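Quick one: C-alpha cells for this chain, please?
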Amino acid sequence: MTSDVAQRSRQAQLVVAIVYVGIPLVLLALTVWISAGAETFNWLAVLLPLAVLIAGWFFRRRSRYKPSRWNGAGALLGAVAGIYPVALAGSVWLVLPAAIVGAIIGAALGRYGERRLMQPAIAELADTQYELAFRVRGLTTLRLFVDDKSVSLRERVRTGAGSVTYPLEAITGVHDVSVTGAERLRFPMALRLPPAGSPGPALILQAQGTDWVLPQDDAAAIAQILNRRIEAA
C-alpha cells in the first residue's frame, strides 16, 4: 500500500469512527446532560443511547471496509442523535427539524469519508481491504462493487433491487474505452433504470459470456484495479 493510499485509509477510518462511535457518544452525552438537569436523574433514558453506542461499535467492525454503507449509517445515526435528545427535553415541535439536520450532518460525514478514500480513483486501491463501489455515470442507480473475491453489479430503485455477481476468476476481460454517447448500450441483466449513453470513458466488463458497457468517468483506473485484484485472486 502506497503512502497516499495509507493516508487516505487513515483519514477515512477516522471518519468511520466518528460516524459509528462519535455520533452515539454525542447522543449519550446529550442524554446524560438533559437527564442530569431534571429533578430526578432518568437512568432509563440512558439505555437507548447506550444501545445505539454498542450497535454502532458492532456495525463499525462489520462496515469499516465497506464505504458504500457509511453514508446511510451516518444519516440514520445522525437522525437518532437529533430526535432523541429533543424529544427527551420535551420540545416535540423541534423533533422533525432536529432529525433532518442530524441526518444531513451524519450523511455528509459518511459521504466525506467515502470521497476521501475513493477520489480520485487510483490503481493502488486494489491493494487495500476495501469493497470498492463505483457509480455509473448518468441518472442511474447501478453501481459496480469490487472486493477481493468477486465483482457485483447492483441496481437499487424504489420498486426493488437487482444484482449479479461474478467471481473474479470468471472475469475474462476488462477494458477501458471511449464512447461517443450515440452507442446503444446493452446489459445482460434487466435494469429498471439503465444508464443512458453519454460521451466519455466507459468500462467493458466481460464475464461468463456476457458483456457490460458501463459509462464510468474513472474507467481507466477501475480497469487497473480489477486487473490487479484478478491477478491477486
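The helical segments are 3-36, 47-63, 70-88, 95-118, 219-232.
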